[in-house]
């Protein structure tokens, strides 16, 4: 069990000598794996440890690759998105000099109207002109296999390759794969070709000159010298695929046809989306339809001959799907290539059919938009029309240009026996790591195929994560999110109040909830919609107070192993003694580095979970007085916030139409104030007596969720009952002072507590461990009271006049309103605190320039 990045890095490390890297999501893990292999002394198949060097940027990495290749070293790199674009200048040189190499790319969107760290083919498509061959993998197994096929083919063809697969969907999907042995890798790589590659390297023993300048008289002719190499490359790749099939039994082709041999409606696609289409083609054909799919693998050099031969004679209509957008183009790249190839073949009477089929093109899945079976059904339905929509989009509602195809109901097209599960966790609470372990246990210790995919918010730590797990005896061709789950687990009670997380639960499915409420109390704490879902779906319902248990064994809020154990216990995928044994082994592997004590705590968690798991009897009638919190924003929020940001926050961003989006990615500022994440399990409580009013707590808070103010003490007379106030220190005037926490913005990271310099003392004056501010468990009463106090503090107590504040002191700066507030940074982030402070010191005449990521 491994993900696409690891599956690729394994082969790249085995077949290269120099690996020049620069991290960029979602390809970074390939570099990290390669670095770790070399650090551990792992060798390539020739017995040497590859040199891994991290450069200063992707431009530098590709320059280092070019340099190493020019000396004859087998060299590779990993990248994505704008990182790949930075490599383009060197790629033209590498290809122009006919240099064998493979760049492994986890394909990702390009930052256009907004940055997106997620997957599509925009980056790869921007390299079409460089002269690199482009070879696509559709799954984790394929990423492993094509990495080797590309390496074999580049050495023989001398054409450099980009081997690409879908960012996140393939790069981060954990799947059960067959690992290539060193013998197979050795068998695939012809040593003579390696020697030839070396012999072409610049070497003082065989002096030659490269990189000359050519004038108008000869540059053109020089550019055309490479044609024969590109003409031969498709056959070379096919030869490598055939050799690979002999060695492993896994067959691939340049354009692979799947479906009814007499199909009339065909989709052409590339990347993970092709697997979804494959599943739907089998589903439809089993119901008596005649549909097919051409999976494009070698996209450059484009072999029109092989493409056209892949279609059945009966083809009447074709939809070509591109996972990219070229504004203003006559059609997206794959569509144009397919249309052109069929046109030429018909002209030359080389097509399997005699009449022009209807050919349309469409865009799908940009920025990792989930590509689902009902989208594929809509594409096939479009092909049924006399005049199918061309240049369409699928998966969105385009109310501006009316490009979209209408979707039908969500349909389950995979094997109905496949078990699907969804786990809602909080970034950094260990849910994702535990689910990775769980799916590995299932994949490794049962005969099931298994798949794990993990959806993160770009806010990472402190935001919601959803783990999608599937396992079943049949091959899983479902690179899309679970939408019909047998099991749903919620690892944070605050999510139940906000999200309709049971809408994806199958009838008769199971819901597991982490909560502080007992099995007898919990029913009345659920929103009405959740109660109704449980009743309508005839669901089984279990609860566990995992936070309390985790605290009792010293694990803090790391509840993952309790929840995992409950999943295994309820799902009965393995007998109890077996799953416990495997979970303990996994915990040892994961936490072994942190010491025996931590491992033991985790083992204790596994032992304690089952006896603290309780089934809740679901009543026949929903009785709740509360409903799901529909509005996650303030009533006063601007229209754009209500129309666009609120649905995004509510997990309904997929429903936003094209017409609702800002045209050019411009948004009003200060919108994070409307998002009340309420993800913290703990929050700080202020002890007036111990506080020395230093302002350090407010200084370090990454989210500006704790503030200090000095004010006219008369204002406090109108404060809510639980509002805390005291006399301000260090002012001549009689002023009030308050440290106030925003309970729904605080993530409970504890940074403020850890920096606080004031310790409480006991009656004898001895210093205690507790301070002037301490983390306490945030219950509902505290949340409500402190929200009211925060509202009063923020809106009824004015900010002090900047002119009266001494901005040369920390406490002074913290009386000033920060202009970057409630950032969605990871809990405990060290960087946002600095930016916040700069705004407090400089005010709004300030420009901040920052690269992407956490820089
Ligand atoms: S616990 Fe963290 S987020 Fe909450 S107020 Fe303290 S520093 Fe800010
Ligand atoms: S850091 Fe501690 S002592 Fe300083 S203002 Fe905050 S609570 Fe008071």
Label this structure with key terms:
855 residues, 17% strand, 29 strands, Pyruvate-ferredoxin Oxidoreductase, domain 3, seven-stranded mixed β-sheet, binds iron/sulfur cluster, nine-stranded mixed β-sheet, 5 domains, alpha/beta, Rossmann fold, 27 helices, globular, single chain
Textual characterization of the structure:
The model has no long low-confidence stretch (mean pLDDT 94). This protein has five domains: 2-246, 3-Layer(aba) Sandwich (Rossmann fold), CATH 3.40.50; 255-394, Rossmann fold (3-Layer(aba) Sandwich); 419-616, Pyruvate-ferredoxin Oxidoreductase, domain 3; 639-674, Pyruvate-ferredoxin Oxidoreductase, domain 4; 682-842, Alpha-Beta Plaits. The chain contains 27 helices and 29 strands. The two termini are 32 Å apart. The protein has a nine-stranded mixed beta sheet with strand order 1-8-17-18-16-19-20-21-22. 35% of the residues lie in helices and 17% in strands. Helix 3 runs parallel beside helix 4, helix 15 (431-445) packs parallel to helix 19 and helix 19 runs antiparallel to helix 20 (576-591). Helix 13 links the parallel strand 13 and strand 14. It has 855 residues and is α/β, with parallel strands linked by helices. One iron/sulfur cluster (SF4) is lined by residues 684, 701, 703, 705-706, 741, 746-752.
